[in-house]
Design brief:
This protein is mainly beta. Helix content is 11%, strand content 38%. A 5-stranded antiparallel beta sheet has the order 1-3-4-5-6, with no helix packed on it. A 4-stranded antiparallel beta sheet has the order 2-33-32-31, with no helix packed on it. The protein has a 4-stranded antiparallel beta sheet with strand order 7-8-9-10, with no helix packed on it. Helix 2 packs across helix 3. The chain is globular, with a radius of gyration of 27 Å. The N and C termini lie far apart (108 Å).
Length: 489
């Protein structure tokens, strides 16, 4: 009898070991990186993100647009830069400003909201909320909308007893137009049409009326919502701290689908990063160290890529590529369709904040206090700045605005000064006076002059501030470039 009991115990032990091994292999298989496809739920012909709703706004919200793509479309600023002005913000500035109406609007961690001049960095107004802040404001129709956390101390554990707030300010004076109590919120708001969308620590997503702050709808999710929401069409996308990603109907708040991070041993990952929307996909990083791509329509996982560290960074999108930083000190460029690593860059510290794409360069900062600009095509280093910790850069047509740990910098391009501007008439007159007869105006934006020679046609492209791009190697073309250089002096 005893022998039978020993045999049964041994069999049960072997079965338990086998079941444990099978479970381990199953979870390990489920947690593997998934390679994507460019033929499955990937749209390469989608329309570009719409411009801001009114001409006076250059950077309306966190991530630039409702899709949160972080690309400054049409801005041509490039390093090196000069520092035009510096603003001391008195405490940490974790999230970048909104830019519009000739001003920058942002808040420091201590809950002071500032409006400063984009041209000179001088303060126009400030508002002391006596609450903590960890979000960028949104700008729409001459109103600034900001989300607020609980009152200090700022590192309190989430609790149902804590409250947050959304406040609307007049851009000109900082006058409070309305305020609405919600849970503590570090969700950067976004305005689409007549509605403001954001989440809170109580696990709710709010849709508030832009004019009054009254709720259109509220949807409760499984966990705390710390990220911003991203919107495309009538779909809203947001992640929470239960590790779930959701698609909601933006009109009703009804959940369309929900997905989750991949399983793993130990604690599962959660979503702090704000999703980015492009190519029919949702791109979002998680604290399990992975970047995920889900189908925007289906919610199905299309690829995942490990980074070796937490991913708090929200992704930037540019030319079918995804850009994101990791706590592993590594910055990644990934193929948007497949998740394949195209290039990496080793930085001097953990990367927590989110990147920005400006004129073919990707900007990001590290917790070690340095901002980098890399060539977005190949990862080559273009420029660095000795400040910055989180999401470092926004821009308008005239300046790059860099967020340091407790300072903001207005940066202008460092270009050689020209003594005069060159008009179309002046350029043609100078060329003909020099003896070049076969010249003609080809275009005006930029000013382009064709220099015709017997064997081929060549062009000299001239910006009105006397910066030249000479196309072609013929003697007459080089001669024309020299004539125009003299005309600019």
């Amino acid at each position: 009898m005893r022998r039978w009991l020993i045999t049964i115990a041994a069999v049960l032990a072997l079965a338990a070991v086998g079941a444990g091994a099978a479970y381990y292999l199953h979870v390990r298989h489920q947690a593997r990186d998934i390679e994507g496809s460019s033929t499955v739920e990937f749209v390469t012909t989608e329309a570009a993100a719409p411009p801001p709703p009114e001409p006076g706004i250059a950077w309306p919200t966190y991530g630039h647009d409702a899709e949160r793509q972080r690309f400054a479309n049409g801005v041509l600023l490039a390093p090196p830069f000069r520092t035009d002005w510096t603003f001391r913000a008195q405490s940490l500035v974790e999230f970048p400003p909104a830019v519009g109406y000739g001003r920058l609007f942002f808040a420091n961690n201590d809950g002071v909201v500032f409006a400063i001049g984009a041209k000179n960095g001088k303060r126009a107004w400030k508002f002391a909320s006596h609450r903590c802040v960890a979000a960028s404001p949104a700008l729409d129709r001459h109103v600034v909308y900001e989300a607020f956390l609980n009152a200090p101390p700022c590192n309190r554990q989430p609790s149902g007893a804590l409250t947050g707030e959304v406040i609307a300010f007049a851009v000109g004076t900082g006058r409070v137009l309305w305020r609405h109590v919600i849970g503590p919120s570090e969700s950067s708001p976004v305005v689409v049409g007549a509605t403001i969308f954001l989440g809170d620590w109580d696990g709710r997503v709010w849709a508030l009326r832009r004019r009054t702050g009254k709720a259109r709808w509220v949807t409760r999710l499984h966990g705390q919502v710390k990220s911003g929401v991203a919107i495309s069409g009538n779909r809203l996308y947001v992640g929470d701290y239960s590790g779930h990603l959701y698609s909601l109907n933006a009109t009703s708040g009804k959940i369309v689908w929900e997905a989750s991070v991949q399983p793993r041993f130990g604690s599962t990952g959660n979503f702090y990063a704000t999703p980015a929307l492009a190519y029919g996909r949702v791109y979002v990083g998680a604290t399990d160290g992975k970047v995920y791509s889900f189908g925007a329509s289906s919610g199905k996982l299309r690829w995942s890529q490990s980074t070796g560290g937490y991913v708090y960074s929200s992704a930037a999108v540019w030319r079918s590529r995804i850009y994101v930083g990791s706590y592993s000190h590594t910055f990644f460029c990934l193929d948007a369709a497949t998740g394949d690593v195209l290039w990496t860059f080793k930085a001097n510290g953990p990367i927590s904040g989110s990147p920005t794409i400006v004129a073919g360069r990707v900007y990001f900062a590290t917790l070690a206090g340095r901002t980098y600009a890399l060539d977005a095509r190949n990862g080559a280093l273009s420029w660095t700045f000795p400040d910055g910790q989180y999401s470092p850069v926004v821009a308008d047509a005239k300046r790059l605005y860099l967020v340091g740990s407790a300072r903001l910098y207005g940066l202008g391009e460092r270009r050689a000064k020209t003594l005069r501007r060159l008009s179309t008439t002046s350029a043609l007159r100078a060329l003909r006076k020099a003896g070049l007869r076969n010249v003609r105006l080809v275009g005006t934006r930029p000013l382009t002059i064709g220099v015709v020679v017997p064997s081929a046609r060549r062009r000299v492209i001239v910006e009105h501030v006397c910066h030249f791009a000479v196309r072609g190697g013929k003697v007459s073309v080089r001669w024309a470039g020299g004539v125009l250089q003299q005309a600019c002096r």
